[in-house]
Amino acid sequence: MIMDAFPSEPYSDLSDDEVFARIAAARAALGDDALVLGHHYQTEAVVRFADLKGDSYELSKKAAESHARLIVFCGVHFMAEAADILTRPEQTVVMPDLEAGCPMADMASRGELESAWVQLAELGNPDDLFLPVTYINSRAEVKAFCGLHGGLICTSANAGKALTWALQRRPKVFFLPDQHLGRNTALAQGIPPAEITLWDPVLPLGGNSLAVLRQARILLWKGHCHVHTRFSTAQVRQARQAHPEAKVVVHPECPQEVVAASDAAGSTGFIVRYVEAAPPGSTIVIGTEINLITRLARQYRDRTILPLVSSMCPNMYKNSPRDLLHVLENPGRVNVVRVADEIREPARLALQRMLDL
Description:
The structure is a single chain. By secondary structure, the protein is α/β, with parallel strands linked by helices. The protein folds into 3 domains: 2-100 and 316-340, NadA-like (Rossmann fold, 3-Layer(aba) Sandwich); 105-225, NadA-like (Rossmann fold), CATH 3.40.50; 228-307, Rossmann fold, CATH 3.40.50. It is built from 16 helices and 15 strands. It has helices spanning 16-30, 44-47, 56-65, 77-86, 110-120, 126-129, 140-148, 159-167, 179-188, 210-215, 233-242, 256-261, 268-277, 290-299, 321-329, 341-355; strands at residues 2-4, 34-39, 52-54, 70-74, 92-94, 130-135, 152-154, 172-176, 196-199, 218-221, 247-250, 264-265, 283-287, 304-307, 336-338. It has a 5-stranded parallel sheet with strand order 7-6-8-10-9, with helices on both faces. The protein has a 4-stranded parallel sheet with strand order 3-2-4-5, with helices on both faces. Strand 2, helix 2 (44-47) and strand 3 form a beta-alpha-beta unit. Helix 1 (16-30) packs parallel to helix 15 (321-329) and helix 3 (56-65) packs parallel to helix 4 (77-86). Its EC number is 2.5.1.72. Its cofactor is [4Fe-4S] cluster. This is Quinolinate synthase.
């Protein structure tokens, strides 16, 4: 991926009110030529200026459908990469802060995946046996690998559909990079635990024997989200003791035992809809990134919305109103995200397979 970064303007001397006023003016001047996308995990100070809010799946679709010449993606780098892959050549994708990355996406590289494919050849032709499915929280080069090998992308909102699609085409699935989303999805699809195996990329054969790999239908890359692995069953028990009437809802990036101990699990979009549908007076304890929980609590004051524990994504937090002002006042000239053509086309194929589900 090529990312063009330029020094930001000296916005540090501006008051918050001045920053907000200039953002509004810059946004108004751009009109329909710009689309500002805000992920649910963004801070309120940034997401308040988003034209559209959503999870990674919803925003990927909106980016693909948009005719705006400038796409401002308030999220992390893999989201902006996906938007650049899906948009047309005359469109430009920018991020408020190019340093807003994703540690989980960086847990799997194309080189490591190609090494895994070479090792899996001991079982037979990997392209006959395994279909790669990568979570959208992954590098563009990993998405490209999946596209070249018949695979696709998924999000937490459509992981079940993606897994079904994959198993209809090949006997085994290689799911990466989030082991927890993969495990929770496979179990929800009725795959027995004995047929789900972890692949550690630093170990020969992923730390498995050939016999285990032959038995496995789902291989899970050893990756995780640091925001969602903070949640535990002890916290769920404590929440139920403190609020016996509460429903506990968590994200499927949480460990399987946390999902099993909860009342419901789903994507950020699912969590938003769950809260929307809850009757007034409900108490809902949520296990996901704290900015979304805080926003829901503010929006639905007739319901009690509580965090399972406060867990923040520091990379989402890197995007600030001053960063947003910088890209809006310099449209298409700073913080541009571009994916190289040799990566873009196979990655687009994998993303389009997701959008076609």
